[in-house]
Amino acid sequence: MKQRRGQFSRGQLALLVLGLVAGLSVVYVISHEVFGGFGSLDTQPDYQAVLFVNALVGISVLLFVLELRWDALRVVLTVIVALIIGYGVTAAFNLDAAARFQRGEFRVQLQSQAEVPDVEEMDLEYGKARGGEFNQQNAPEPLTEASYRFAGREGDTVTIIAAVTRQNIEADLEVALLDESGQVLAESQDSTAEQIEAYRPDLKSTKDAVIENFALPADGVYTIRARPEAIPRSTQISEMLSKTRLAYEAFLLGPLDGVLRWSFWVQDALTLILLGLAIAIVFRAEQFSLGAEGQLYFGALVSGVLILAFGDVPKTLLVPIALLSAATAGFLWGLLPGALKAYLGANELVSTLMLNTIATRFYEMVLTFQLQPEDAGYTASDWFSSAGILDPIVENTQVTIAVFVVIAVVIVTWLLIRRTPIGYEIRMIGANIKFANYGGVNSRRTIMLAMAISGAVAGLAGAHLGMGIHRKLILNISVALAFEGVVVALLARNNPLVVPFTGLLYAYLRTGARFMESDANVSFEVVRIIQAIIILLITAEALVTFFRRRRILRRGTVEIGTSTPPPLPGGGAGVPSDTVGSEEGAHV
Amino acid sequence: MALIEAKDIVKVYPNGVLANDRVNLAVEPGEIHALVGENGAGKSTLMKVLYGLETPTSGEIHLRGQRVEIHNPQAAIDLGIGMVHQNFMLVNSFTIAENIVLGRESKRGLFLDRQKAIRDTEALSKQYGLYVEPMARVDTVPVGMRQRVEILKALYRGAEILILDEPTAVLTPRETQDLFAAIRNLVKEGKTVIFITHKLREVMEISDRVTVMRDARRVGTVETSETNEAELAQMMVGREVFMVVDKPPCERGKPVLEAHNLTYINETGRTLLHNASFRVYEGEILGIAGVEGNGQTELVEVLTGLRNASSGSATIDGVSVLGEGPRKVREAHCAHIPEDRLTNGVAMMASINDNLIVDRYYREPFTRFGMIDLATVRENGSAMIQEFGILAPSGELPVGSLSGGNMQKVVLARELSSSPRLLIAAQPTRGVDIGAIEYIHQQLVDKRTDGLAILLVSADLQEVMKLSDRILVMYNGEIVATFANTPDLTEEKLGLYMLGAERQTSEEMEQNQ
Q1: Is A551 helix (H, G, I), strand (E, B) or coil?
Q2: pTM score of the predicted model
Q3: CATH of A104-230, one of 2.60.40, 2.60.120, 1.10.10, 3.40.50
């Protein structure tokens, strides 16, 4: 019945193997992709550090599997479902684009050696060109077809070129020559390589159209009709699919395309892990504080001001002091809503959101009026002196020693929640505050401490942004990053040992979305949609668990017990077959 | 011929639990049929099957000899079967009349015909002797009246058979008597009543016949006049139950708890506790009798630090404990079995191990050098699970996964293992089945014999009289009488004080301090 330490059941062993396999394959795949194969590893600068960070990623995968057990599958499923829906959204975005992709500026040239007939009110004449823009975006009545009239004599040899004005315009043009009765005399949809060679630079690609050396049959007015070729629906769809595939490739593999891109992912993950931990602490106590944003701003501000003021203090002193003061600033800024809640009953959600605004504006005020150098072209402080910068561990990136700070914070948070009296208090007021009170826990103190400790961690995230990433204080140093931290914490079920994995995962999605935007021209907002879906799915899942738990509790007390042996003294029943509350059960 | 008959009902829940195993039940027209059994014996499932809330896995239901299929409550209502649930299903913001006609209301144009609703309610109320105030909003009336509303609602829908699911669980003794009178009236009017309970005393008092269930099976059906409580208890539990606890004479030591002039005035200015003074001695159980809502809850909460007294003092072993929160009280070696255990006594989502240390986690050996020693916490959990017979495969499981009885044991284990000097036990057996009651009673008496001072607050007068060495009576926030629990003390005598008809002078009370 009892489980002892060091004695693994078969299920635990399976999990361990699963976690190790998953972790190792992740390390292998990431490293392989980032270095573009292992062949020329030693030519990469600081490749050991990259491998080290990748090993940490692997460890986070292992922890994720071991801590959440089979719940880990649910997290993975949640993300996969969100990605699939996101794929649909991207596809819809691209379908819309495909329908309109025949657009852009074009020119129609009419060339001939013959003399220009003297006819008034013509659109074109020999040796001239006209142009316009097909399917102009946002135009009330987009141009879909252009017609130009010109006068010609019998026997004149004309060459008509319909081409886009720039190489990168993706319109496929066709051109036709019509006589006065509207009869098509000649037409062209594409051009050959020789023609492109011959008519360079007017012809740009084989998609452009050219009618070469056509002899006019009679005197009179002719019409040139140019338009984008009609594209069949099937082409549109295949166009859409290939674009979506490209976009998703950029999304899913972009962050692994070289060490630089990889570093964007890692540095973002460090921020999100810190914020996820901050949120996990308060959520553990069932305090819905969203104050991490404001605490982050204060952390960044205090550490930044300190560094700007004492830039010549040795690094070994300045960095720890700056980090510590950032944590302290966050701590105090978290204590405030905690005290408001504990002593005045002020709803922490409302008070933290308001305090966020105060913190952000205060930061902006100090930055604009105190820190910004006079000659600066935009609102930012001076660069931090090198003593105040977290040293990169990978050359030319912002993957800094913050990695070690984050590792330390993860371990400390875990110990705090699982192994300390204050952590026990936090968990108990989270599980049932009435029970905690009854048992003698000082819930006011616990609420304040939980919010303050969370603030300290968020303050460190601010320091990481200033000292590690931007190396100065900038306006909008965080754009609602703390709310991304909520997703990270929710995905991790507020378990500090799982937060590193979910932070990395979510940062990966965010970074991937950025590369999707730059590589495939798909809006970053797609990742917002994915984020929204993740939150919805997690909330829905929490609801399901809630209802299931209620149902089981009801049955557990009233109906269950017939399958267990007869009641011992004291009666009552056994444990329902499907156990509830995987959250707590998952630990230890 | 039986009016309604359940034949070989089998119900297996999707999670594999067998809740009814070939259960037969035959209810004669015009009788009060009690259905008793411990928690989890399958009573409620059987009734849910009759009322169409659960579909049986196999088995038949016969009504007046005809086989019927009851797939949902509407079908049951159409067949004249009504059910009053333990948790009332009323719209709190509607008036009583509106609640009663809800779903069957007569309309005047687009609107509810309020006058007719009120007339109907009054007529029905008069016919069955179930007094309600038709115009009052449901959330403003007492629990007893809400229950009558539920019964009238069923009658308004034409119920011939009324199923009452543990109707007395929420009632005071007085309200229970009113309910019993109403039930007798219903039977006189030709209705048939199925009465679910696990209180044997009520069975003996009200029913004509009793069906006992145990472990999803029917143990038997007997005429009430031909049985007694002990026999029923034995049928329910499956072994002999000693209804009488083994209680050696009281050897009283020095006072542990001394309360002096405790007064509590709530936020709205009502005095809920007025000048309560008493002492609890080593080795005695001091029982507090009284109709619920006469200040007992407030007294317990003030003493345990959950509320601040408005004035007065209380000391445990000479240490003042008032107004400094529960930790201070617990550090003065006071254990507390709370009234509402599932709300205050446990954290459902937390593990059993964590639940067992809420009063001691910060002390050695649980916390060493600022860190909680998980091994000690685990060992403590395993020891308690064994010592108190908590049915749980592991202490890491959340308490919420345990049955109600086992959750109670978690509370009991924690409180009794804290080596207390004083135990404040509020309604220690409420919602507990018979086997467990016996166990808890014996535990309390044994600890008291070992020298523990116990303050017992219970709405169950029998329990108070059975366990206590001395009895205080509370009425309207005041202590109105103090008795030594001698054989000549009767329920009737206590009842007079509980209802405020009599009170002792302070000299009389002093005699029994």
Answers
A1: helix
A2: 0.73
A3: 2.60.120
